[in-house]
Design brief:
Blueprint: E1 12-18, H1 21-33, E2 39-44, H2 51-61, E3 78-81, E4 87-91, H3 106-110, E5 115-119, E6 133-140, E7 146-153, H4 158-161
Parallel strand pairs: 2-5, 2-6, 4-5
Antiparallel strand pairs: 1-7, 3-4, 6-7
Bound molecules: adenosine-5'-diphosphate (ADP) and magnesium ion.
């Protein structure tokens, strides 16, 4: 099923501030640790806003070997890593907008069992976003400060998003 996010009313919103790159990694780590089945995570934000740092944290939480090797898959579009769940790191930066998700195999991933993190998700037409997903919006608010707005669509966000306290997340 496809939905128009503009008509979504079940978005459940959380706002997190991080004050160092490690804190953004830790946020990804905390969320990744809590993931036990496939999920699509759309990442929005300018270059340098922390999307890849977050994806590195996700990789840690998913027990990907050598998570620090996770870098923006700018030339390959999709990098796949083994972990507790398969982890797919996607970067649509180089694609024209709107990107055709079928052409690059994204729709299959959206229907699969892995964790799919998509940088530059604004390249996707809104109608191509899966019904169940997390959307994260990264904003640079200072030299080392980032504001991250997390919206859960079509899923119960309580397991993932409750009690996020970045200060208490182990690095
Ligand atoms: N709080 C923060 N969270 C994430 N990155 C930060 C933060 N403060 C500074 N940075 C820096 O911002 C850059 C983020 O880069 P990256 O994660 O690759 O961004 P993107 O993938 O959005 O282009 C890195 O150079 C990192 O050191
Ligand atoms: Mg990146």
């Amino acid at each position: 099923m496809k939905v128009n996010p503009a008509s979504q009313t079940d978005g459940n919103v959380s706002e997190v501030e991080t004050h160092a790159p490690d804190e953004t990694v830790a946020l990804g780590h905390t969320l990744g640790r809590r993931m036990n089945h496939g999920l699509v995570i759309l990442l929005f934000g300018d270059l340098g806003s922390g999307k890849t740092a977050f994806a590195q944290g996700l990789a840690r939480g998913l027990e990907v070997p050598a998570p620090s090797t996770v870098t923006s898959p700018t030339y390959t579009l999709i990098n796949e890593y083994p972990g507790r769940l398969p982890f797919y790191h996607v970067d649509l930066y180089r694609l024209p907008e709107p990107a055709d998700p079928d052409e690059i195999g994204l729709l299959d991933l959206f229907d699969g069992d892995g964790i799919v993190a998509v940088e530059w998700a604004q390249r996707l037409h809104p109608a191509d976003r899966p019904t169940c997903r997390l959307e994260l919006f990264f904003t640079v608010t200072g030299d080392t400060a980032r504001s991250i707005r997390i919206i859960a669509y079509g899923l119960d966000p309580s397991d993932l998003l409750n009690d996020i306290d970045v200060c208490s997340i182990p690095p």
